Amino acid sequence: MAAAGGALLHVPEPRAAAPRTFSRPRPAQARQRAAATKRRNQASCEAPPAKRRSEASLPPARATDAKENPRAFKGKAQKAFSPETSSAGASDGSRERKPGVKTSSLFRNNPEIPALLRPAVKQRQESVFTSDAFQALDLHPHLISTINTVLKMSSLTSIQKQSIPVLLEGRDALVRSQTGSGKTLAYCIPMVQSLQAVKPKIQRGDGPYALILVPTRELALQSFDTVQKLLKPFTWIVPGVLMGGEKRKSEKARLRKGINILISTPGRLVDHIKSTKNMRFCRIRWLILDEADRLLDLGFEKDIALILNAVNAERPERQNVLLSATLTEGVTRLADISLHEPVRISVLEGSQDQMHPKSRAILGASPPAASSELDGFAIPVGLEQHVALVPSKLRLVSLAAFILQKCKFEPDQKMIVFFSSCELVEFHHSLFLQTLLGGSGALAPGRLPSASPPLTFLRLHGDMEQEERTAVFQEFSRSKAGVLLCTDVAARGLDLPQVTWIVQYTAPSSPAEYVHRIGRTARIGFQGSSLLILAPSEAEYVNSLASHKIKVSEMKMEDILSVLTRDDCFKGRRWGSQKCRAAGPQEIRERATVLQTVFEDYVHSSERTVSWAKKALQSFVRAYATYPRELKHIFHVRSLHLGHVAKSFGLRDAPKNLSASALKKKKAHLRRPDPRRKTQSKHRLAELLRSEYSSGMGASGAKVKRPNKRAGPRSAACAQRPALAVGQK
Ligand SMILES: Nc1ncnc2c1ncn2[C@@H]1O[C@H](COP(=O)(O)OP(=O)(O)OP(=O)(O)O)[C@@H](O)[C@H]1O
Fold it and tell me: Whose CA is nearest to atom 4 of ligand 1?
């Protein structure tokens, strides 16, 4: 640690002296800037420091160091950890403890962290609760007492107050309200109220009276649970779930016996429409599309079209409800096709939608959503959103430090961390179990503060067996604290109680996805917080969020890392004998290096673990290559410095030829859904419906080709999130 003694961390200059505001560059400007930055960087990289030179031998598609520099803020950025002032490699605990191991410094050659000047944003607000009691509604007294005693709810939420009377009148509705505002009961209560009143009484053998389509299995189970509770006094009505993962044979047997309220994922229902004789829709009175935008994102359009056709063929007269927390173009287009003279219900404050629903009834084909609705999202008032700019090399230690800070050093914290693929979830889950919980490659077995509660890690993604998925979902729902690492399989609709923190370790591919992910906290009027971790080159994403009325405040990486000074298990040798000293930036840096070294030592402990980390890195690069076109100027795979990114997988060097092979795969079948393709699919969906009717096709849908599993839009969406590819079918 020779040079460390004199190496002082460069303390950032006051922000006031800094840079210009974010202005979202138009693609052409961005390209010009990128080119200029590239030229400058090429010039400045001609004589890289010794370590950089070895990294520069990596494949050319991988960017130079400087490409990670923020293109929009060049020249104005502040330095967080300055390469010049940190003769740093020498200060790394890693080198000190493992003299033979060649490992680059965490704090050298990082891109500058731009100052984040956030544009003024006035977020949209919706009030969650009303003072109205359920008794005020015209409901069966047993239903009211079930809501009060079984569900333990007394007041209506705003969206329930608006929706339930409209749905009780028998109208179709397009319901939009923020995450965690009680949309499930907004349709379940009127549905149960109407079905319990059917005369003669519904019989099990009658088959489905209501069909609820949801995008994921977990959501299917959750909705089933709610329906089942509401049906307690009405035992003659039988609910059931079809969701894949279960043997078709046993599902067929249950269908044969009879299910009156059928909750299903679209893919599985289509399978049964095609292969199960007892699949009848002649009594359907309710068709509900929940989490409509997610249904579309996952490429379920054709499945939904087929289902609509099948139901229309047997029972065209029915009530249709479409629900979503975000009103995207896709949702309004699906509403056009599936709803009949719908009432649009929304509780945005200060918007026209606050009017009484009846006065807002839209007759005839509903027009596209007002642009204001498409531009902004309502975020729960109790949700505090943060963003941290973290250079690629420091991502892993920053994530680990943040998890420790919240879930180890603070009581009763429940956190969900989102990743872009199953491989990433698996990798981080195993790595954290092995290193942070005292596994074989552990940081310091048993040395994490013993007084604090045990840290628990769970994982959820679609490559898991359904049984395990369900068990994890239930365990995390019940637990008071812990960390759930997951893909977007958990982003929508899931109601996991008392989640206090949402961390987005990989940025979402759309603002709607962002809103749904953070919506797993601060539900139903509670408080919650979120953290989005971005690389310095991705800082402009904050502007992109602001343009959708999403406001984030900055959390400093140094503050995240400073938690490592709270426990001596991260102590480097240098500070060994010094007790109770104030934590300075140098100490923070050394402790972060100790933690990084633990990760690297574990990853490099065997060939198997190295290849496992490489696979995870490859999966990260692939997912990165699938950001939609409109975000490519922020998230472009060429902006990644693979040597630095590799470090965040505990790898000491970037694997050779990684970018080339990853991109090749991406070309084959890894594209994120492109909104422009969605616009085309609007016509596709409408055409599909029209053509099937005009061809006189019946409900069988025999002429409808199943989407090509390899190349169809659904597979594209699934490839982006392999979790769901396997999960849904
Ligand atoms: N009237 C109410 N009083 C108290 N709690 C309620 C009420 N209505 C719903 N809840 C609870 O609020 C939570 C969120 O409800 P729900 O999952 O239906 O929200 P949502 O609007 O569908 O959210 P998302 O858009 O994320 O799917 C659930 O735990 C539910 O039990």
Answer: 153
